[in-house]
Amino acid sequence: MLDYLLQDIIPYPMLGTIINGVYYSLIFIAMAAGLYGSYRTFISIGYEKKRLNKFFLLLVTVTYPLLIIGGRAANMFYYPAHMWGWKFFVQQLISGRLITFHAGMIVTGIVFIVLIRIMGYEMRRTLDTFFVFIPLGHAIGRVGCLMAGCCWGREISLSLFGSIYTFDNPVPLYSIILNLALFYFLRFCHRTVYMNGEVSELRGIIAAMYLLGYGNIRMILEHFRTEIPVFMGFTQAQVVMGFFMVTGGIAALTIITGYAVTRKYGNNDEAIIRVRRYRSLGGIALYFTLLSTVSYVLLESSIVAWPFHRIDSVQSAYKTILEYAPVVLIAALTVPWLWYSRLSVKRLLSWNRFSMSFLAGFFCAALYSFFILHTVRFGIDSPAFWPPVIILSALNAVSEEIIFRLVIFSLLRSVIKYRAVPHIIQAFLYSLIHIFIGGIIFGFLSFVFGLVLGYVMERNESIIPPVICHFIIDLGVIGAPLLTI
Questions:
Q1: What is the distance between the alpha carbons of residues 285 and 274, in angstroms, rounded to a whole number?
Q2: What share of the chain is helix, strand, coil (3-state, %, to 5)?
Q3: β-sheet bridge partners, residue 167
Q4: Concatenated DSSP letters for 87-138?
């Protein structure tokens, strides 16, 4: 807008300097307005002033540089996937010309969470207060976009009284209006929860509603912009907004469920445990969604190699183990959700009850594995290549059984009274991953095998039998692609 109004009055590069000055000044004003509004609200809900001053001094020090750094860090994802890489990422981080709001907010938000922990503040109530003022800051920042001429949409035509007017779609103006509406809505909700007698079970609901609200706003506005799709027909912002909406939806559902449980059962131990298990399911759902999306993007862009590929040397065979190692850590990080839910991990790791279902599962796994190994044409016959296959099969069996049977299935059984539902959900999630790996047929077979493994675990009351069955079938499923011509 400034470019259009002043280009005949002020020459470049002076005009460019003025536009950049206006743009970055409004980002600074947006940050200051958000922090000031948050500070006043913290005081009004009873936060101690002296301690709060120290907290905000830290925030003021780190917020602006983090917004810029985080905003630039996303620049790489505006380019085609074949250009992605660590070198290109660093280049964009240092000298990128774009500032992406949601990326800057994510980086800044992570540091905020760390500082909240350091200061010992209650996490959900503190985040709720900050999230009220993020849309206000965003609306002010979008004034900079409107004036600088960035983030406008594609050219459109409007017919009025017989005349046709052509202009770029003023997307920043829409964003300003919608973010102001979101700000006033969240402020009303915050006052309802905290000002009129705090409802402790609803803490965190403001942050969840922001993620849902802003996610929907930005998802819609992207249809009017000219961004290039980077993932399954979605723009970079829409991919992130999808995660925002999933996160907000899971968080809101978990919080409301906990509120309903507390209202029904009171604050006794049974209610506390039940609420913890719902929260754990919400956390696992979010963790599962994030890891699935990130893994898919990293693999599709070739930033990370798929570990189960054909090998031609012993060295490359053992390299696949290192490529798979992060998955083991990812699986291990789900176990604390069981401890938080007060479910006995020790009991599930022991094998105190034997069921014939284990033998049935073992026989099915062995038969399928033998069928695969018997029908493929091996390009490698040396016994030296089999130890990596065995190690990878063991790691994969342990990792997947921890995630899907030990954690997800156990949590589902603890809160859902209908016996078949947990079996179907865990098998469906297990098959979903395998659909991306091998297609619909492989996904269907994985769904059936997931049901078998869930039944084996339930009947034996231990994770060990399904791990063994899983290991046997992986000898064929993993061994075939590694050793086949």
A1: 17
A2: 80, 5, 20
A3: 156
A4: HHHHHHHHH-----HHHHHHHHHHHHHHHHHHHT--HHHHHHHHHHHHHHHH
d(CA 28, CA 21): 11
Quote the tokens at residue 302: 């070739």
H helix runs in 195-268, sequence order: 205-221, 236-265
Q: Which residue has the tokens 């609420």?
A: 275
pLDDT of 198 strictly over 70: no
Residue 209: per-residue pLDDT: 93
pLDDT band of residue 433 (cuts 50, 70, 90) is confident
Q: How many residues does the chain have?
A: 485
Tell me if residue 155 falls in helix, strand or coil. Answer: strand
Q: Does residue 336 contact residue 446 with C-beta atoms inside 8 Å? A: no
Closest to 287 measured CA to CA, from 240, 334, 242? 334
Q: Which two tokens stand for residue 280?
A: 């754990």
**E strand residue ranges, 268-376:** none
Q: Count CB neighbours of 53 within 10 A.
A: 10
Kindly give the interhelix angle for 14-44 and 49-73, rounded to the nearest 10 degrees.
Answer: 140
Separation of alpha carbons 454 and 457, rounded Å: 5
Rounded-to-integer distance, Cα 354 and Cα 459, Å? 8
Q: What is the torsional sign of CA 300, 301, 304, 308?
A: positive
d(CA 440, CA 233): 21
Greatest mean pLDDT range, 16-25, 154-163, 170-179, 297-306: 170-179
Cβ atoms of 183 and 167 closer than 8 Å:
no
* CB proximity list for 320: less than 8 A, separation 6 or greater: 307, 308, 309, 311, 388, 392, 482
Cα-Cα-Cα-Cα torsion 76, 81, 87, 89, nearest 10 degrees, comes to: 20
Residue showing tokens 């299935």: 409
Q: Read off the pTM.
A: 0.71
